[in-house]
User: What shape does this take?
Amino acid sequence: MLIADTALQNSPATSNSLPAWQLQIKQAIRDPAELCQLLQLPASMAEPAQAAAGSFPLFAPRPFVDRIRPGDPHDPLLLQLLPDSQEQLPQPGYSADPLAEQQLDQPPGFLQKYNRRALLVTTGACAIHCRYCFRREFPYQQLPHSLQQWQPALDSLRLDQSIEEVILSGGDPLMLVDDKLAQLVEQLSAIPHLQRLRIHTRLPIMVPERVCAAMLRWLASSRLQLIMVIHANHAAELDHNVAASLARLSHVGMMLLNQSVLLKNVNDTADQLAALSRRLIELNVLPYYLHQLDPVIGTAHFHVPIERGRQLIGELRQHLPGYAVPRYVQELPGEPSKTPLA
Ligand SMILES: *Cc1c(COP(=O)(O)O)cnc(C)c1O
Ligand code: SF4
Assistant: This one.
């Protein structure tokens, strides 16, 4: 389960000297009533949201909330973060661990399913609680907390010389403070056979200030090739502040990719997906994956049938250059890569 502040707790900074991004995390909205008031939504929406939140509470950073259209209960950004009473309906075929990640016998924080790339699950914390999250039931409490506890995972990386790319994942790896990330990346950079560092994160979108000078310093100091996969689902997420944070990343040589999840009522029209791709290209970000929703309990109301997804991709191909059409994929347990659907 994701606990939003855990990654920050070891920070020595006091609250009045916190970096701007950490203040944004501390000041994120956790109360559905406050969110409804701020967005001029009927107060009657708050109580069902509170009831539906369960053990995965509302968590919404203000820079992202600022991009939600006030007074619109169907806003595609709002739907990603507001707990919905449909989460509590019985969901046959949906489970806590549809990807069978918890059955893999690997060191804490280390997850390798595919050849030549391995994933470090760095933290359970995130800058937003996405209602469709595929790891909302992941046992994050077993993760390493100190650099010392990371050693078994780092040893696995050191021992397997076939691994070329290390992927920082979570939760959201950029919820860790820069000191910790700098130390971790220094150790990774010292592993000779690693060539690339990939970071999967929603933070440059949720809290653009996260792309701060301290972060750019440890990124630029690594010898590893840098790749970042941001997770935008809708063009309206990508305002001018996000554009500026992505430009800072491009400036240090970061290759920028995007992955989305196909979500009912959020981005399940060709117009919405095309607008997202166009905006991404405008910001120097290549659309990489469009994921079929993983069947995690509580997410069934976001389901879009695969046939509909294929149809949408067909429409995108007619209107966009090939490089702007994301690969429509599904993750199936036991497969050696994501499975293409279109
Ligand atoms: C998705 C995933 C990757 C990355 O796959 P790519 O196709 O290279 O983007 C790596 N490891 C795990 C465990 C994953 O789930
Ligand atoms: S940022 Fe990713 S890991 Fe975190 S809640 Fe959203 S989908 Fe889940």
Remarks:
- The first strand starts at residue 110 and ends at 114.
- The chain has two domains: 31-88, 101-340.
- Confidence is low (pLDDT under 50) at residues 1-6.
- The two ends are 33 Å apart (CA to CA).
